[in-house]
Amino acid sequence: MSKAKELSPAYFGLVMATGIIAIAAHQQQWPSAFFYIALLAWGVTFIGLCRSLLRLRQQK
Predict the structure, then answer these.
(1) Which pLDDT tens digit goes with each residue over 12-60?
(2) Residue 49's pLDDT is what?
(3) Contact yes or no for 38/15 (Cβ under 8 A)
(4) In the prediction, which pLDDT does 5 show?
(5) Distance (Å, rounded) from C-alpha 41 to C-alpha 54?
(6) 0.90 cut: is pTM over it?
(7) How many CB atoms lie within 10 A of CB 14?
(8) Cβ of 4: how many Cβ atoms within 10 Å?
(9) How far apart are CA 39 and CA 15, in angstroms?
(10) Using H for helix, E for strand and C for coil, what is the string for 10-49?
(11) Which of 2, 11, 37, 60 has fewest C-beta within 10 Å?
C-alpha cells in the first residue's frame, strides 16, 4: 500500500491551521517563522497529493 494512501486528512487541517496562524502572526508583526512552517506543511501535503494522483493514474 502506498504511503500517500495512508496519509490522514488531518494533514490538510495542519496546513490550514498553520496558514491561519501565519496570517495572524503577520498581522501582529510577529516573526515570519510561522509563514515558513505553513509553507513547509503545504509543500509536504502537495507532494503527497501529487504522488497519490500519479499512483492512481498508473493503476488505470
Answers:
(1) 787 788 778 878 888 888 777 777 877 888 888 888 888 888 888 887 6
(2) 84
(3) yes
(4) 67
(5) 20
(6) no
(7) 17
(8) 16
(9) 8
(10) HHHHHHHHHHHHHHHHHHCCCCCHHHHHHHHHHHHHHHHH
(11) 60
| 16-22 contacts, C-beta under 8 A, 24 or more apart | none
Cβ contacts of 52-59, under 8 Å, gap ≥ 24: 52/2, 52/4, 52/5, 52/7, 55/2, 55/4, 55/5
For the record, the C-alpha cell of 16 comes out as: 490550514
pLDDT score for 19: 79
User: Count of residues for the chain?
Assistant: 60
